[in-house]
Structure formats: C-alpha cells, structure tokens
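Why run this: before we spend reagent on co-expression, it is cheaper to look at a predicted model of the complex and decide which construct boundaries make sense. The entries below are exactly what would go into the expression plan.
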Amino acid sequence: MKYRKLGNSDVEVSEIGFGAWAIGGGWGEQARDESETALERALDLGINFIDTAAGYGGGRSERIIGEVLKRRGNPKVLVATKTPPQQGAWPPSPYCRWQDRYPESYLRANVEERLRNLGVERIDLLQLHTWTRAWNRDPKPFEVLQSMKREGKIGLVGISTPEPDQNAVIDLMRAGLVDTVQAIYNIFEQEPAAELLPVAQERGVGVIVRVAFDEGVLTGKFKPGHQFPEGDFRRNYFAGDRLDRAVARVEKIKEAVGDCGYTMPQLALKFAMSHAAVSAVIPGIRSVAQAEANSAVSDLPDLPEKLLCDLRAHRWPRGFWYGGK
Ligand SMILES: NC(=O)c1ccc[n+]([C@@H]2O[C@H](COP(=O)([O-])OP(=O)(O)OC[C@H]3O[C@@H](n4cnc5c(N)ncnc54)[C@H](OP(=O)(O)O)[C@@H]3O)[C@@H](O)[C@H]2O)c1
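The model came back. Tokens follow.
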C-alpha cells in the first residue's frame, strides 16, 4: 500500500481508503460479521483511512468502525465522518438558508453524536455532507467548525460536494475554509479535472475521491437488466434505462482498452488515483474479497499515458440521480 499526503495537513493516508456506506446499510442485506471482517482485512492490508457518515445506517457504520478500532487497540487510522444538514431538501435548494440547515446549536449537537458513535474524544476529519453555492457568500457553518477545531473536538474540516453542482465547493477552497474536499471523479464523471482538482492542488486542499465505480457499474460486473435486491438504493440510482445505458458504455470501454493488463475495477481505481491532486480514493468495501482486490490496486503500476488518454474519451456528462437520468 502506498500513502499520500492529505493536502497541507501533516497526515499521510493510504491511496485506497475504506468507503463505509454499505456496511451501515442501504445496499441490501449486509451481515454484521462480514462488515467487521472486511474492515479488519482492509486494516491488515494497510488501509489507514475510513470514510463514514451520520447517515450510513443512522450511525451503524460509525459504531461498527468505532468498535473494530477499539478492539484493535485504536491504531493510527484517520476516520472521516459527515454531518448532514437538518431536515429539508437534499441537496439543499437555492432557497434554503444555512441558518435553518446548519445552525450552530445543531452542528455542535451533531458533532457530539458523531463523537459518541465513534467512541472518540476528537473527530479526525468532520465533513459537511452536502452544500449549496447559495451559502458561499456567507459560509458561517465553517466558522463554527473552525472554532470546534480550536476547541479540540475536530482535527480537520472538510466538505463533500453536492452531486449536481460539485464546483460549488471551489469558493470554499479559495477562501481557505476547508482542509479537504470529497468529490466524485471517475471514468464517467471527469468534470472535476477542469477546475476543482487544479484549485485543490493550488490551495493544498486534500482530495478524497468517492464513487470511483459509479456505484459498482464501472467494475464491469453488471449485465443489462440486472435487478438490485430490495433495500439496495441502486434500484433508484439506476432506475429506468440508466443501468443498461451505463453497462453499454462500460462494454465500449472494455472494447477500447482490450487486453491492457488491468481489470475494470483496477482501471476505475487507477483512473481516479491518476490525478496528482487526489490524496485517496475510497471505494465502497463490504466484503473481504473487495478489501483485498481494492487494496491491491495501490501497488500496481500507474496507468500508462496512452491508456489514461483512451479512458478520458469515455467521460459521460449526464444529469444526476435526483433528477432521474
Ligand atoms: N455524498 C457523499 O458524501 C457520498 C456519497 C456516496 C458515497 N460516499 C462515500 O464514498 C464511498 C464509495 O462510494 P460508494 O460505496 O457509494 O460507491 P462505489 O465505490 O462506486 O461502489 C461501491 C460498490 O461496488 C462494489 N464493489 C466494491 N469493490 C468491488 C470490486 N473490487 N469488484 C466488484 N465490485 C466491487 C460493492 O457493491 P456490491 O458488491 O454490492 O456490488 C461496493 O459497495 C462510500 O462508501 C462512502 O464512504 C459519499
């Protein structure tokens, strides 16, 4: 496993992190012991960065992580979690006010809950789960988080991009309000390469890449008409003809790269890691096999320039799942 500096912080994170949404729930059946063994295996293999959130199973993902780390004697691992806005539109609408969605009293109470769930006295990295550019001219919630940092409740402060407008976080980076940004950057979604990633690099903001597999389809394992089980959010994400269209595009990628020496999951992760602004890619991991396959990608050679250029041709600008397709 190779490690990279998390922006300007003094922390080094594994290039491959552990995306801990599915172990919380929302992805169909997931046995507790399988979640624990997957996480244990990932830690054994050198993963030292875990991404979770309040919303992953209503704190279940955080509690599993807290328990596993405690059992292992609290090794040096960076755990990032997220505070969502108070009830309302997701992502926040242009008319939402931060005073209603991220008021100080709520932020403080929510961070206390994160501390309890993880069983720690300080959150290594606290990310706001979503945002709207409507708040960029008066980004007070970050002032609150910065004070909590000074009070020792939070180590680093981050933001996770709103899917329909990832560039909304660029002003926050320019204003020096965030230590990290969590963004979608994958073979389909390449827009961050235009501005978000270069600005992060200029400003020393750590970049965490999520959804490198586009919720699994970029692993190349789905066939047209694939049915997701009850309780798997992908029934909605891939609603209508979206899965079949995505699968058809993945087949084109496979044809284009031919026998390139990388499997589709390896290509997808290496593509996301190829940008110099990126500190860590956090594939969702829900089994030991996935922990092993994904961790191993760090040690593979970087993608040759020609292959990287070929993959760039497969970007797929599209609407986001809130709007359907
Ligand atoms: N707004 C936000 O801040 C936000 C939103 C989404 C995600 N995230 C974070 O980013 C992480 C990653 O995103 P994600 O989990 O949504 O999507 P993803 O990484 O694109 O896909 C993960 C899924 O792909 C499958 N998979 C993983 N490794 C595989 C492999 N080697 N071969 C074949 N299949 C494999 C697994 O599901 P199956 O085995 O069921 O196919 C896994 O749950 C999350 O866990 C979460 O921590 C944050």
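The beta strands are 3-5, 12-14, 18-19, 49-51, 78-83, 123-128, 154-160, 180-184, 206-210, 278-281. The first strand starts at residue 3 and ends at 5. Bring this page to Monday's planning discussion.
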